[in-house]
């Protein structure tokens, strides 16, 4: 990492008497039920800055102060890492609770246990939500929000993915977790006394071992080993940053560049840091020396205008609606459902509890119920972009034509509400591709998805599929070549190779003198005057490409004779026990097949073309206008 505009580090001698706490985050006690009164004379408010939304019952002054600090932290990361994507796809919502009693009504399920210590802050990060929970009565303590700052740092480096080794990912988060904000300065890298004391008493992990620790390692999961892993990752990151700043060399940046190019992490470290045994000796000396340095960042010029923050008073129902949503994502589903139900009874026109019910039923596997809840939230003019996205994706397989017609408008509303949300662009592109309509626009949408999330393999595959459909084989091939660098599993690599082989076969057919005419079997004459057989750029669909709007049926049996064809056609049979004949079914778009598992979790990512044969499954299908086949697949539920 390269620090921009920092003064020289300041020395900080460490004196500590406390032992290091367990590396797992500690939590609070009991569960409270029912509606939480905000305050007799202080209604809850919502304060919105350009990049964060804060909800609190502690008053506007406190809310503005907290938002200032989060905006300054965001500015700090943007300044230090100008190429980083500082804003996540989903907004960060901060909920500032005044005391332990209020905090207990929000905290996640797994942190409610007898005998646990107080937690001052928590960062709830999921694919759909970024919630920060803070206890305001802990502000006077040293680094009360270290956990929040730690997790917010992880959020900043989310796009690095597997290219950032775990030790460095955790080391940087530990480096920033003790950040302090003052009127005109930000102090970075303050060491943890507990970390230092722990490292003095524990044996250091050999660096070759440290650099290979992954999410499956005991150094990441077991408490004793995990404690030294976190502490040593922090110490090494801190040492490399301080010495790098003093020498003017960005050794961590050099290391990251090598690792991102798939170089072995230990070899990359040897080339970037030098002899690892010598580095470990220097690190041990650094730890024993107790002369640590902090960085000072001048934040007086940070472009923060608290006067521009938008403030509004919330109703109690709105406040409780937000709490119900937090509880749903925090694993307290029964409480979330009860609270949402009571809110709907009190205020039927409030969309938030309908959104929460949609999420709860979706995670329970009831897609049709979830679609109805999201539809109600849409009708109540929800301002949550995820509501429109979920409604659209759940409606794509609906046999109701009127619902299908709302898919495009819902996805466009999602994009309008959150232009940074890449999946909405990809889904809208898939919707057009499925109908073989507006393919130029579909291609542009998928390219936008790729630009917004450059590490998503499936956006690249979908973009390549569209290029193939449009007979732009060179661009499809280029897209797949880059996608190879993103594949993390053998199945993902195989999916890419299947498409590369298909492109090669299409090129070979061309080279033999064939003329490619999309979706046509009429003979033609090439420019040379030689009569040739026409080979279409994609196989004409064997069965109709149409909405699954016919009468629906469900069968339970063994899947047999799975066959796939380009670009996304799938055909299979379901053999029902005791029946002489099998049910023959098809899907014209297996990339969007509703595939789920009941009672087990697949050990690997399922590829419909290779992995379905032999499975017992419940298959729902709709009758097709083509009576040569039994129907079109709506969903497949695999049974163990």
UniProtKB/TrEMBL annotation:
Nucleotide-binding as UniProt keyword: no
Signal peptide positions (record): 1-40
Keywords assigned by UniProt, alphabetized: Signal
Top-rank taxon: Bacteria
UniProt-listed InterPro entries: DUF1570, TPR-like_helical_dom_sf
Ranges of residues in domain DUF1570: 146-242
Protein's UniProt name: DUF1570 domain-containing protein
């Amino acid at each position: 990492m390269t620090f921009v505009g920092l003064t020289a580090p300041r020395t900080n001698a460490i004196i500590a008497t406390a032992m290091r706490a367990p590396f797992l985050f500690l939590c609070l006690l009991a569960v409270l039920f029912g509606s939480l009164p905000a305050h007799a004379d202080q209604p809850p408010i919502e304060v919105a800055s350009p990049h964060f939304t804060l909800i609190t019952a502690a008053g506007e002054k406190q809310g503005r102060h907290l938002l200032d600090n989060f905006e300054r932290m965001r500015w700090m990361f943007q300044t230090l890492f100008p190429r980083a994507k500082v804003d996540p796809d989903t907004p960060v919502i901060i909920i500032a609770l005044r005391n332990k009693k209020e905090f207990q009504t929000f905290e996640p399920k797994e942190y409610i246990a007898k005998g646990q210590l107080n937690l001052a802050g928590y960062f709830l990060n999921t694919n759909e939500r970024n919630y920060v929970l803070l206890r305001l009565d802990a502000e006077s303590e040293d680094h009360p929000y270290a956990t929040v700052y730690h997790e917010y740092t992880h959020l900043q480096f989310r796009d690095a993915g597997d290219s950032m080794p775990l030790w460095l990912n955790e080391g940087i988060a530990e480096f920033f977790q003790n950040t302090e904000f003052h009127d005109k300065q930000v102090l970075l890298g303050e060491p943890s006394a507990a970390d230092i004391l722990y490292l003095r008493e524990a044996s250091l992990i050999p660096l070759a071992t440290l650099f290979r620790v992954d999410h499956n390692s005991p150094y990441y999961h077991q408490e004793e080993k995990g404690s030294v892993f976190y502490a040593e990752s922090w110490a090494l990151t801190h040492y490399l940053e301080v010495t790098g700043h003093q020498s003017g060399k960005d050794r961590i940046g050099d290391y990251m560049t090598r690792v991102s190019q798939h170089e072995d992490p230990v070899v990359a470290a040897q080339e970037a840091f030098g002899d690892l045994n010598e580095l470990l000796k220097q690190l041990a000396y650094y730890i024993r020396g107790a002369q640590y340095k902090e960085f000072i960042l001048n934040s007086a010029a940070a472009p923060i205008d608290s006067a521009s923050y938008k403030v509004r008073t919330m109703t109690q129902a709105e406040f409780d609606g937000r709490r119900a949503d937090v509880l749903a994502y925090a694993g307290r589903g029964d409480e979330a459902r009860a609270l949402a139900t009571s809110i709907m009874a009190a205020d039927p026109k409030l969309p938030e509890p309908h959104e929460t019910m949609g999420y709860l039923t979706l995670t329970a596997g009831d897609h049709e119920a979830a679609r109805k809840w999201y539809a109600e939230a849409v009708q109540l003019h929800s301002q949550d972009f995820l509501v429109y996205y979920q409604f659209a994706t759940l409606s794509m397989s609906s046999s109701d034509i009127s619902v299908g017609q709302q898919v495009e408008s819902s996805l466009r509303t999602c994009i309008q509400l959150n232009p940074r949300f890449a999946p909405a662009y990809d889904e809208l592109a898939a919707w057009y591709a499925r109908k073989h309509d507006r393919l130029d626009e579909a291609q542009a949408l998928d390219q936008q998805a790729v630009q917004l999330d450059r590490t998503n393999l499936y956006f690249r595959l979908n973009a390549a599929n569209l290029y193939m459909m449009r007979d732009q084989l060179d661009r499809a091939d280029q897209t797949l070549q880059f996608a190879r660098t993103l594949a993390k599993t053998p199945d993902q690599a195989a999916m890419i190779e299947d498409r590369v082989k298909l492109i090669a076969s299409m090129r070979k057919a061309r080279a033999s003198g064939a003329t490619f005419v999309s979706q046509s079997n009429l003979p033609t004459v090439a420019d040379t005057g030689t009569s040739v057989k026409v080979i279409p750029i994609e196989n004409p669909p064997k069965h109709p490409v149409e909405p699954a709007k016919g009468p629906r049926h469900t069968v339970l049996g063994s899947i047999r004779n799975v066959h796939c064809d380009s670009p996304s056609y799938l055909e299979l049979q379901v053999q029902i026990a005791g029946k002489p004949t099998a049910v023959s079914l098809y899907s014209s778009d297996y990339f969007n097949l509703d595939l789920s598992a009941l009672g087990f979790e697949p050990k690997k990512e399922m590829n419909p073309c290779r992995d379905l044969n032999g499975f017992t499954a419940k298959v729902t299908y709709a009758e097709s206008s083509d009576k040569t086949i039994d129907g079109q697949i709506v969903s497949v539920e695999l049974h163990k």
